[in-house]
């Protein structure tokens, strides 16, 4: 029965009961004339009453003869004071009456139920579950439908991903003019998968597609297909594609596709059944629609390594578009988009900011502009200048400055020599990133100081010598502590971990050691999302090879430590002098660093051609 019919039925019942109740009160009030009890006593004493009906609260009766004022039937409030004896004394016929509580009892049962049902209907409707039919809506798609005027984002708002944008522009053009693009027999891809690290603009690109195409845009997350009931996800997939076909040409966008399309395993049961059925239904829908009808599926994920191979084959997701971290030119274009709303000073140079932010994604750059604007607002400036951007970059990289964290004099000296060790080795060895700033002011959660190195250009390849230089710079702080204090501290824990990771990658992945030859022992594909904890790797080599790997890694790290020690030993006087200045100022900027670089004495033959050979390590140290 329809919900409206249910509501009207209860309204009718309530109305009938109300009418009966009002009618009973009306009849009772019109048949008997209310009189005071004293008048009742007078009538009783005068023997004018023929009979009475006695109730718990009222007494009604009839006179022997109507009074001149028309009184015949009367009702009065009962005052039980020896009433029975008085009635017997005057020979009055009287009888008790039983009140009728049917209407009252009926209302006491019906009215609470009606009120409860009304509140329940109102609450269900407010929760958006379709009233009494909400349970039947569980298999319906929850996709949000957007059109051009809803998104208000176009390709002009997307920068730094020109290749990905060109691919999506072609899809938009096909949706607008399918006959033009299909004149040679071609068809658009059924599915386009946007792959890339978090924050690179995959969702923004998809919204720009909706804004440019001007067609219905069905947006949904992969997690919205997953339910505890088996078959619900598959039903939602069917409903989603059915709605899209009715609105074709249209675009379906599934964000976080890995929640829906994770690779199927040999073990089923429980939640796996639901996920597998949902994925199977999606695969069937991708095979079942004709792309010439104007239906395109967009997907986005930052975990492509976990997707099912059947989902990625040709004919389903035909194109995989990499939306990677932008290069320097891309960062400059992204900054140009985000700087439109900021009030900038004359010294702000987007190209310089792009050079100072290698590895930043589009989301990082948007956050950088916002942080710089807030810093300028905090100091009551009229515009955002370049110093605000430098401070914002430092804040994002190193963390919040902790000037209230006081270090004792010995710890300050250790931190000063540690950071100068990084900087001096980084300045002495070729091929390393430029040192921009040295500070012994605590930052972030556990950083007692930092040395900021920024590359002058984007690099995509590194030689073995450059990797060895990088390890030596990482171990420069530890070497400085050992040289000056003849002791090492816990401050180099993170440096050791990074240097060891580089050495292990050189041995296992890049084949850069003579002892193990041109063989790779690590075939794992690097995911976009790095786990926060170490994941055990499957070892596909023997115990003897494992020992050789450990030995080669240690020789590489020890060799880099020896090189760092050699640089600092040759420049010990400069190290002490600069450390004294750093303890006084707490920060060294680019002018002081350039002066330090000019005074630095290079070490001849500081980097042997083979650090994994014992003789070379001895010569370096």
Strand order of the largest sheet: 6-8-9-10-7-11
Tell me the fraction of residues in β-strands, as a range.
Answer: 5-15%
Q: In one word, what is the shape?
A: elongated
Count of DSSP-assigned helices: 24
CATH topology call of the largest domain: Methane Monooxygenase Hydroxylase, Chain G, domain 1
Q: Uncertain regions: pLDDT < 50 for 5+ in a row?
A: 1-7, 128-139, 607-621
- Please, what is the average pLDDT? 77
Q: Characterize the largest beta sheet: strand count, sense, and whether it forms a barrel.
A: 6 strands, mixed
Alpha-beta classification: alpha/beta
Structure keywords:
five-stranded mixed sheet; Signal recognition particle alu RNA binding heterodimer, srp9/1; alpha/beta; 50% helix; single chain; six-stranded mixed sheet; disordered C terminus; 621 residues; Helicase, Ruva Protein, domain 3; 4 domains; Rossmann fold; disordered N terminus
């Amino acid at each position: 029965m329809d919900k409206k019919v249910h509501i009207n039925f209860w309204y009718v019942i309530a109305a009938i009961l109300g009418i009966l109740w009002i009618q009973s009160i009306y009849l009772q009030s019109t048949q008997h004339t209310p009189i005071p009890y004293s008048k009742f006593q007078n009538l009783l004493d005068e023997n004018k009453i023929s009979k009475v009906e006695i109730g718990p609260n009222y007494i009604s009766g009839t006179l022997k003869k109507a009074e001149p004022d028309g009184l015949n039937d009367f009702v009065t409030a009962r005052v039980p004071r020896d009433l029975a004896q008085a009635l017997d004394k005057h020979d009055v016929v009287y009888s008790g009456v039983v009140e009728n509580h049917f209407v009252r009892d009926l209302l006491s049962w019906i009215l609470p139920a009606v009120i409860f049902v009304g509140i329940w209907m109102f609450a269900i409707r407010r929760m958006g579950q379709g009233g009494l039919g909400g349970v039947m809506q569980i298999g319906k798609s929850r996709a949000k439908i957007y059109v051009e005027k809803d998104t208000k984002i176009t390709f002009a708002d997307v920068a730094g991903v020109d290749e990905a944008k060109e691919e999506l522009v072609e899809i938009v053009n096909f949706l607008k003019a399918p006959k033009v693009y299909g004149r040679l027999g071609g068809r658009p891809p059924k599915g386009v998968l946007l792959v890339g690290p978090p924050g690179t603009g995959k969702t923004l690109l998809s919204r720009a597609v909706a804004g440019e195409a001007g067609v219905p845009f069905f947006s949904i997350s992969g997690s919205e297909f997953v339910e505890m009931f088996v078959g619900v996800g598959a039903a939602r997939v069917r409903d989603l594609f059915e709605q899209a076909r009715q609105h074709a040409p249209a675009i379906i966008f599934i964000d976080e596709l890995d929640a829906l399309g994770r690779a199927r395993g040999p073990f089923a049961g429980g939640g796996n059944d639901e996920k597998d059925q949902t994925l199977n239904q999606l695969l069937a829908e991708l095979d079942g629609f004709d792309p010439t009808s104007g239906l395109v599926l967009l997907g986005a994920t930052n975990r492509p390594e976990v997707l099912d191979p059947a989902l990625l084959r040709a004919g389903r997701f035909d194109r995989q578009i990499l939306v990677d971290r932008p290069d320097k030119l891309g960062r400059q274009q992204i900054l140009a988009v985000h700087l439109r709303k900021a009030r900038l000073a004359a010294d702000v140079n987007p190209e310089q900011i792009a050079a100072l932010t290698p590895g930043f994604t589009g989301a990082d750059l948007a956050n950088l502009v916002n942080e710089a604007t807030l810093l300028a607002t905090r100091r009551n400036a009229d515009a955002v200048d370049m110093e605000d951007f430098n401070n914002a970059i430092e804040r994002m990289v190193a963390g919040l400055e902790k000037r209230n964290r006081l270090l004792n004099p010995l710890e300050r000296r250790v931190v000063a020599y540690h950071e100068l060790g990084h900087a001096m080795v980084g300045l002495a060895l070729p091929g390393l990133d430029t040192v921009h700033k040295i500070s012994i002011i605590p930052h972030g959660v556990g950083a007692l100081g930092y040395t900021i190195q920024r590359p002058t250009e984007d690099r995509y390849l590194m030689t073995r010598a450059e990797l060895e230089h990088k390890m030596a710079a990482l171990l420069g702080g530890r070497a400085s502590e050992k040289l000056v204090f003849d002791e090492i501290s816990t401050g180099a824990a993170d440096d050791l971990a990074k240097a060891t990771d580089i050495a292990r990658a050189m041995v296992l992945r890049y084949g850069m050691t003579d002892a193990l030859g041109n063989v790779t022992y690590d075939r794992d594909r690097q995911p976009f999302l790095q786990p926060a904890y170490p994941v055990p790797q499957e070892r596909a080599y023997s115990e003897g090879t494992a020992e050789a790997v450990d030995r080669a890694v240690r020789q590489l790290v020890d060799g880099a430590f020896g090189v760092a020690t050699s640089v600092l030993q040759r420049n010990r006087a400069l190290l002490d002098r600069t450390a004294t200045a750093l303890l006084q100022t707490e920060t060294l900027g680019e002018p002081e660093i350039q002066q330090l670089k000019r005074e630095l004495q290079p070490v001849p033959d500081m980097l042997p051609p083979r650090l994994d050979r014992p003789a070379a390590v001895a010569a370096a140290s």
